[in-house]
Amino acid sequence: MSALSLRNIEKSFGGNHILKGVTLDAGPGEFIALVGPSGCGKSTLLRILAGLETADSGDILIAGRDMTAAHAADRNIAMVFQSYALYPHLTAAQNIAVPLVMRRLTRARRLPFLGRMMPGQRKAVADIHRDVRDMAASLKIDHLLDRKPGQMSGGQRQRVALARAMVRRPSIFLMDEPLSNLDANLRVHARGEIVDLHRRAGVPTLYVTHDQAEALSMADRVAVMIGGSLLQLASPQVIYEDPQHVEVAKFIGQPRINLIASQVEDGATVALGGTRCRLVDRAAAAGSAVTLGIRPEFVSVSRQGNEGLPARIERLEFLGSEVIVYCRLDAIGETMVAKVTPAEGADLSPGVPVRLTADARHIFVFSKDGSRLAAAPLSSIVTREALHG
Amino acid sequence: MTSASFTPGRVARLSILGLGALVFLAPYIFMVSTAGKAQSDIFTSSLSLIPQQWFYVQNFAKALSRVSMGRLLMNGVVVCALILVFQVVIAIPCAYAMAKLKFRAARALMVLVMLGLLVPIHATALPLYVAFDRAGALNSYVALVAPFTISVFGIFLFLQFFRAMPDDLIHAARLDGMSEPGIIARVIVPNAWPAVTAFSIFSVVAHWNDLYWPLIVVSNQAYATPPLGLLYFRAAEAGDDYGALMAATLIITFPLVAAFLLAQKRFVEGITMTGLKG
Ranges for the ABC transporter domain (chain A) (predicted)? Predict the structure, then answer.
């Protein structure tokens, strides 16, 4: 049984179709990153799951129970907001205690003065204090408990927000870009901490981000959402190495994948420079338009020979462990990016004419509607056919 | 402060501000001066601010003895406090609903609030008077308080303030398990003190000084508010005894002045509404 399952969630805002039938399942203890460009509907999906918005249609199941119509408070979902949304008038300790106070104390017990006279009150309040302190200790924010949000730094507020969300042991944990307000150094550090925290708590987590590096580095599985549709849900490795849609390939990977417009040639083959691939199911007719994708690390740059695509170097970016080479293709005038080692990049400089060769095993072929067409390097097909023949 | 900080620009600014303050304070200063003058002193042809004989004690004694000043002030406090409490208790949930909840009639209600802002009390005074008369409620606190319990101005002011509050704060409160009234009590109100303070000033000043409505519904001295009491005092007791009248006026305006001076910082903070940051 999945811990969480969303079925065919649809949502429109005044004629704008934000979510187009999103279906997603999360296993117990799984960390799923929901990644996509801004405005793709990922935050809306999170809000619908939390019960802050209602879907136009579709079902939400949490631990097998239908929660589609349940009130936000009854879903036992905790959320960390991008703005942290700490209560500005309460100290860190009081902020963390709020969910416990609301859940463990009855309405009568929460009354000022009167509540204090109820039997067992002292024990309940002491328990809450203890849990708040334990939570704060595990996030190393015990020294901040008496401060108000206004007196804390961004990183500290983020920890308090995490503590407030974790303290009541929710059945699902949602995070809406919790790191985007931190500076770059702190962000990388906080990534590790959140993953660590997730592993310790074992609560299924849905993490919304527009930063693909965050998604790939933190999640068990990555869900790529573009234009209101969930295009692919798979492990970070599969998302990167085997994208099922041109938009997924485009969104994931830094620098961006090279996409070259092309068309299917006779014998269901496609060609990128001298490199040829054959479409496995041979369904595409000759002459139909396709897009070829090749990641920069699979493009090799050479100054000698006459194999490959002729191009001229426009710009070099030295990044320490690697060099990014921006080249302009002579034939079509488009830019192609290659990622090479500093040793390979040593004799390259802007303006130099080069030949670019794509590794045939890593060429992706996408049809006109963006879906991936299975393809294989021509040579290997030939050998396989020869073997079978 | 050292004299070196008095640059020409600063001096010019301070003198313009001082001049402005003097113009606005002139009637009050004149009132303070008159309250200390004897009858003969007031009606001399020369205009001087300093009384020739100090008559403060006599004038204040007259003001306090001829009219039940305690009763007037008490009425003022009761009426203003009741009006303020009802206004805040009603306006905050209304404004919260209109600012943060989504419902069909929100737009229509907004239009009604704007319309409500355009209607002055003078337009509705007569029907209200007739209604209170039929209900036999004239000469009562109810008549003084009831027409002002729903303040469209209050709703409008809080609405603007609540709109600026982040939605995420309310979302977080809902996820933490708060009901809507809980959100108002635990999240909205504690963060709305600047707006409540600002509104309180407007409300208390307006109703403490209001003469129009009490004059319509109250004819019994027992329910007279301070300005109305002043009117009785002038008509029945003082005649043209301006010294005593000014002394009475001083007593009546004193609570507002004292309150402002004591809480000046908070008031300015409330009106500029810079209290919520972070």
Answer: 4-252
* pLDDT tens-digit series, residues A78-101: 999 999 999 999 999 999 999 999
- Residue reference for tokens 């479409």: A279
Q: Using the beta-carbon criterion (under 8 Å), do A52 and B171 form an inter-chain contact? A: yes
- What are the CA-CA distances from residue A219 to residues A6, A191, A213, B140, B154 (Å)? 18, 10, 10, 69, 49
Residue B22 maps to a domain: yes
Q: Is A178 on the interface with B (CB under 8 A)?
A: no
Gap from A221 CA to chain B (nearest CA, Å):
25
Distance of CA B169 to the CA centre of its chain: 32
**pLDDT tens digit string along A350-376?**
999 999 999 988 999 999 999 998 888
Greatest mean pLDDT among B41-55, B181-195, B237-251 lies in: B181-195
Neighboring chain B residues of A162 at a CB cutoff of 8 Å:
none
CB contact under 8 A, B182 and A51: no
In this structure, the answer to whether residues B216 and B118 fall within a common structural domain is: yes
Q: Which secondary-structure segment (H or E) carries A198?
A: helix A184-201
Q: Are residues B203 and B89 in the same domain?
A: yes
Residue with tokens 């496995």: A280
Largest separation between any pair of C-alpha atoms in chain B: 74
State the fold for domain A255-388.
Answer: OB fold (Dihydrolipoamide Acetyltransferase, E2P) (2.40.50)
| Contact call for residues A285 and A269 (beta carbons, < 8 A) | no
Could you check whether the bond before residue B226 is cis, i.e. omega within 30 degrees of 0? no
Minimum distance, in Å, between the CA of residue B4 and any CA atom of chain A: 36
Q: Is B85 within a domain?
A: yes
Strand order in the sheet with A289-294: A258-263, A289-294, A364-366, A372-373
Please indicate, yes or no, whether residues B51 and B76 belong to a single structural domain of this protein. Answer: no
- Among residues B15, B30, B63, the one where a domain terminates is B63
Q: Which domain holds residue B16?
A: 3-63
Q: Do B175 and A77 touch (CB under 8 A)?
A: yes
> For residue B278, is it within any domain?
no
Partners of A337 in the beta sheet?
A326
Whether B1 shows a pLDDT value over 80: the answer reads no
Query: For residue A388, what pLDDT is reported?
Result: 47
B277 found inside a domain = no
Which residue is listed with tokens 């409540």? B196
**Domain A4-241 architecture:** 3-Layer(aba) Sandwich (3.40)
Are B141 and B202 within one domain? yes
**Interchain contact, B176 vs A73, CB within 8 Å:** yes
How many domains does chain B fold into?
A: 2
- According to the model, what pLDDT value does residue A56 have? 93
pLDDT band at A223 (very low <50, low <70, confident <90, very high): very high
pLDDT score at A382: 43
Flag if B278 and A88 touch (Cβ within 8 Å).
yes
Indicate whether B145 and B264 sit together in one domain.
Answer: yes
For residues B52 and B79, membership in a common domain is answered with no
How close does chain B come to A216, measured CA to CA in Å?
Answer: 27
Say whether residue A149 is in contact with chain B using an 8 A CB cutoff. yes
The minimum CA-CA distance between A81 and chain B, rounded to whole Å, is 7
Which residue in B has a C-alpha nearest to residue A165's C-alpha? B176
Per-residue pLDDT, averaged over B191-219, amounts to 90
